[in-house]
């Protein structure tokens, strides 16, 4: 996945922090930078003083720079009009268009530069018009907005439906997750696309977006940690990572979970998520009784030797069940990550990260 960071010149970070942010992102394989040039609280003098330095560094590290384009932002760039050649010379490789351009204009621009839209506001009618004017959809993508004010973020159902619509036209989608290492001014409440992600761990938010058919994830806030960027760089469409509290002392089981990606069975059970691979992976090991208790929703279990040929059966509990001598409790899905379970369908792939 081509994921990204956000840089806001003349706002929270020093020029040194922004340049280091670019270098760290590059180190972790993060290749996209979103920047907004029309934030009211921005120190315009600082922005103009730092812009060329940041753009030059981004080009040096091979980063895609996405910038909004409007009459106001063009003046900040010392441009009288939209000049694609000069934008590209500066290091801006993608322009974000929110308003002021007709479908015919956009079609012509798509032959010259990559264009990004606000994903949340695109409609079938607009996309059909772009298609009518022979827009190059290979040069179009769509990034959902972030929402600084509490209570204004999007609903996950809306986001999923919008992503499905855009994918019908071959448009790649992206969204933001917050970081609270240095939440962006002025509200400092985080910059998520989905309201449910506000104040939540980045790992849960990025995996949730992946399950909602988002193709690219941006950290919205000003200065994410190295660990957050490392976590983002590991995000993949191949599987979802679900974090859990470790409740086993068995090193074999810990290693089994750390090293393997599991697949949910096609014959989906009512009471639990069952895995295809675990019993085969445990065939040469004996799993002895360990921690046995009532099985609450979100608990991770593994059958022990009292289960006969079912020994090694790995499950995530969906409905409460009584304790049973043949079933060990080996972990518990973190509360923040419970939202991910409803998206694990037959054939879904997932990894359990024990904390």
Automatic annotation (TrEMBL):
**Species this protein is from:** Megamonas hypermegale
The entry's protein name is Uncharacterized conserved protein
Q: Which residues form the 6-phospho-N-acetylmuramidase N-terminal domain?
A: 4-233
Q: Which InterPro entries match?
A: Aldolase_TIM, Cyclophilin-like_dom_sf, GH, MupG, MupG_C, MupG_N
Alphabetical list of Pfam families matching this protein? MupG_C (PF05913), MupG_N (PF19200)
Domain 6-phospho-N-acetylmuramidase C-terminal positions:
242-352
């Amino acid at each position: 996945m081509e994921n990204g960071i956000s840089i806001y010149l003349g706002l929270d970070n020093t020029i040194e922090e922004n340049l280091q942010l670019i270098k760290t992102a590059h180190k972790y394989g993060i290749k996209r930078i979103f920047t907004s040039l029309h934030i009211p609280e921005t120190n315009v003098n600082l922005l103009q003083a730092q812009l060329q330095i940041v753009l030059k560094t981004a080009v040096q590290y091979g980063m895609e720079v996405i910038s909004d384009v409007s009459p106001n932002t063009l003046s900040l760039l010392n441009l009288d009009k939209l000049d694609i050649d000069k934008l590209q010379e500066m290091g801006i490789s993608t322009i974000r268009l929110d308003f002021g351009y007709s479908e015919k204009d956009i079609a012509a621009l798509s032959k010259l530069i990559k264009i990004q839209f606000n994903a949340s506001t695109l409609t079938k009618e607009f996309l059909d018009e772009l298609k009518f004017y022979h827009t190059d959809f290979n040069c179009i993508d769509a990034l959902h907005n972030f929402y600084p004010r509490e209570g204004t973020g999007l609903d996950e159902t809306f986001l999923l439906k919008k992503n499905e619509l855009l994918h019908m036209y071959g448009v790649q989608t992206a969204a933001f997750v917050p970081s609270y290492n240095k939440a962006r001014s002025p509200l400092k409440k985080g910059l998520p696309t989905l309201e449910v992600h506000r104040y939540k761990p980045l790992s849960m938010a990025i995996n949730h977006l992946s399950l909602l058919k988002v193709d690219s994830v941006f950290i919205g806030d000003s200065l994410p940690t190295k660990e957050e960027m490392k976590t983002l760089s590991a995000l993949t469409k191949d599987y979802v990572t679900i974090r859990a509290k470790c409740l086993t002392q068995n090193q074999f089981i810990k290693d089994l979970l750390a090293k393997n990606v599991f697949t949910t069975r096609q014959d989906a059970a009512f009471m639990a998520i069952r895995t295809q691979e675990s019993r085969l992976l445990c065939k040469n090991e004996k799993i002895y009784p360990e921690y046995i208790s009532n099985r609450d929703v979100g608990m991770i279990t593994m059958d022990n030797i009292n289960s006969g040929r079912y020994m090694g059966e790995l499950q995530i509990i969906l409905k409460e069940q009584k304790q049973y001598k043949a079933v060990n409790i080996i972990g518990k899905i973190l509360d923040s990550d419970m939202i991910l379970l409803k998206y694990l369908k037959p054939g879904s792939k997932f990894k359990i990260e024990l904390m």
